[in-house]
Specification:
This protein has about 550 residues and is of the alpha/beta class. The protein has three domains: about 375 residues, Glycosidases (TIM Barrel); about 55 residues, Oligo-1,6-glucosidase, domain 2 (Alpha-Beta Complex), CATH 3.90.400; about 80 residues, Sandwich (Immunoglobulin-like), CATH 2.60.40. Helix content is about 25%, strand content about 15%. The strands form four sheets. Strands 9-8-7-3-2-1-11-10 form an eight-stranded parallel beta sheet. Helix 8 links the parallel strand 8 and strand 9. The protein starts with about 20 loop residues before the first helix and ends with a strand. Calcium ion binds next to loops.
Length: about 550
């Protein structure tokens, strides 16, 4: 039996392109993992000056904004997601002066700069935590989450850390445990404490005043925990080959109702500055995810939507999840789509190189802001990391389960030189051996490459109000074909994607074929073609057809 989306769906989204020309709605966000983007000083680690030198590439690609993963001073236990100073730059990445220069030069090119903000936890090296751990009476004691041991001396409750083990670390100096949702080196801040909120808001202002265009807020759904610290229940679906965190359902340790006040406060602060964006990192089921738009849309502008990362790669499944997402969005809430990031497997490895091109077309033609992970535009794949090169603490803590994130964090492949144009030193993670062929320089010259496809798709998205602002209407999700319409004013674009390895046919007659014209095919060789009443799709081909 063929899975179908709900019958006779209506178009979703208001097709009013010019009413709302907001950059974070219309443009593409490009995520830079700074350690791996471009190294300017041969230490094998990417840096701010490296990003600056590659701005013209981003301009050429025509993305709208860059989001840079954390660049703050840090012991790098979790590669910058353990912040020791919220208002500085880690020396390996550069200086504040270099940061200011990067922002100025990005802005001069019309590129926005989004920072990663990590408010849920600091590093144990942060002076706040240093002060907090000194004594139970420290003025900063309540800035973190300290609890007495259980009667047997063990941890205060059963909560688990995301990277393995208990989420509680015993601190002998004061005889209490502190809570860490991630590594023991990442103690959680206590967001119920107004002083913490004030300090964090000051840090946000520090960067907004320097001109950053917004924040991607790390694990925003974690900020508030159950006031009574109740045990999490077991997860009946957990299997031993899965991450140990998934033994329990995280119902008390995250996503508490009070978190929405915290998000709303951040949003109010952001709104004091013109034209900024608040993005939240949220891994939750659909209905709980969309709550982060906030009551009256006073929450995050864009609660990151990771559905495409976890969806089975099949036309009916994806049609269904798009439909469910569109239906779940609050009135006026702007959708967004993420295909990959520094915590997930590379899209080209998840679906294979042929379908990676279909994935590109899907990401860039759905309704809502697309976020593109560096290197996906050249089809980078997961890179096998030899055991002695492993960097990710998660892989070190829970080896062999495939949880490690290093494979998707390898250096950007700029050219065929020994350091791939990324470094003249020794890269901090191994380069993919395919960098000699798969690199920006080679693929930019190749009119059929995946990079050319990404660039053409981004350009098409910019040119066509139907794509960056139009409504969405499902058309077909049968077998391996997913088809939908994007419409704005009189313009109608049909997107048809073949998720399979056999040719497919789509009947265009119900949609009007008199003026049908192919604008773009993932194969990059059918532009201008007028399809007959039957639209033919080759294996793993996607097309965008104008039906004006
Ligand atoms: C987020 C980040 C991830 C990090 C974790 C802890 O999920 O994306 O890289 O390890 O938070 O900060
Ligand atoms: Ca460097």
């Amino acid at each position: 039996m063929v899975d179908r989306p709900p019958p006779a769906p209506a178009a979703t989204g208001r097709p009013d392109p010019d009413a709302d020309p907001v950059w974070w709605k219309h443009g593409v966000i490009y995520q830079i993992y700074p350690r791996s983007f471009m190294d300017s000083n041969a230490d094998g680690i990417g840096d701010l000056e490296g990003i600056r030198r590659r701005l013209d590439y981003l301009l050429w690609l025509r993305v709208e904004a860059i989001w840079i993963s954390p660049i703050y001073p840090s012991p790098m236990a979790d590669f910058g997601y353990d912040v020791a100073d919220y208002c500085g730059i880690a020396p390996i990445f550069g200086t504040l002066a270099e940061f200011d220069r990067l922002v100025a030069e990005a802005h001069a090119r019309g590129l926005k700069v989004i920072l990663d903000f990590v408010p849920n936890h600091s590093s144990t090296a942060h002076p706040w935590f240093q002060e907090s751990r000194v004594s139970r009476n420290s003025p900063k004691r309540d800035w973190y989450i300290w609890r007495d041991p259980a009667p047997d001396g063990g941890p205060p409750n059963n909560w688990l850390a995301n990277f393995g083990g208990s989420a509680w670390e015993y601190d002998a100096a004061t005889g209490q445990y502190y809570y860490h949702a991630f590594l023991p080196e990442q103690p959680d801040l206590n967001w119920r404490n107004p002083e913490v909120r004030r300090a964090m808001h000051a840090a946000m202002r520090f960067w907004l005043d320097r001109g950053v265009d917004g924040f991607r807020v790390d694990v925003i759904w974690h900020l508030i925990k159950d006031e009574q610290f109740r045990d999490n229940p077991p997860n009946p679906a957990w299997q031993p080959h899965q991450a140990s965190i998934d033994r329990l359902l995280q119902i008390h340790s995250a996503d508490q109702p009070e978190v929405h006040d915290v998000v709303a406060e951040m949003r109010s602060l952001i709104d004091e500055y013109p034209d900024r964006v608040l993005i939240g990192e949220i891994y939750l089921p659909m209905e709980r995810l969309v709550a982060y738009y906030g009551p009256d849309l006073r929450g995050a502008h864009l609660p990151f939507n990771f559905q495409l990362i976890f969806a089975a790669w099949s036309a009916p499944q994806i049609a269904r999840l798009v439909q469910e997402y569109e239906a779940a969005l609050p009135e006026g809430g702007w959708p967004n789509w993420v295909m990959g990031n520094h915590d997930q497997k590379r899209i080209a490895s998840r679906v294979g190189p042929a379908q990676a091109r279909v994935a590109a077309m899907l990401l860039l033609t759905l309704r809502g802001t697309p976020t593109l992970y560096y290197g996906d535009e050249i089809g980078m794949e997961n890179v096998a990391i030899p055991p002695d090169c492993v960097q990710d603490p998660w892989e070190k803590n829970e080896p062999g389960l495939g949880l490690g994130r290093d494979p998707a964090r390898t250096p950007m492949q700029w050219d065929a030189s020994p350091g791939a144009g990324f470094t003249t030193g020794t890269p901090w993670l191994p380069l993919s051996p395919d960098h000699r062929e798969r690199n920006v320089e080679a693929l930019a010259r190749d009119p059929r490459s995946i990079l050319t496809l990404y660039r053409r798709l981004i350009a098409l998205r910019r040119e066509q109000p139907a794509l960056h602002a139009g409504s969405y209407l499902p058309v077909a999700a049968e077998g391996n074909v997913l088809a939908f319409l994007r419409c704005a004013g009189a313009a109608r674009l049909l997107i048809a994607l073949n998720f399979g390895q056999a040719p497919q046919c789509l009947d265009l007659r119900p949609h009007g074929i008199a003026s049908a014209r192919i604008l773009l095919s993932t194969a990059l060789d059918r532009e201008g073609e007028a399809p007959g009443p039957m639209l033919h799709l080759r294996p793993a081909e996607g097309v965008a057809v104008a039906l004006e």
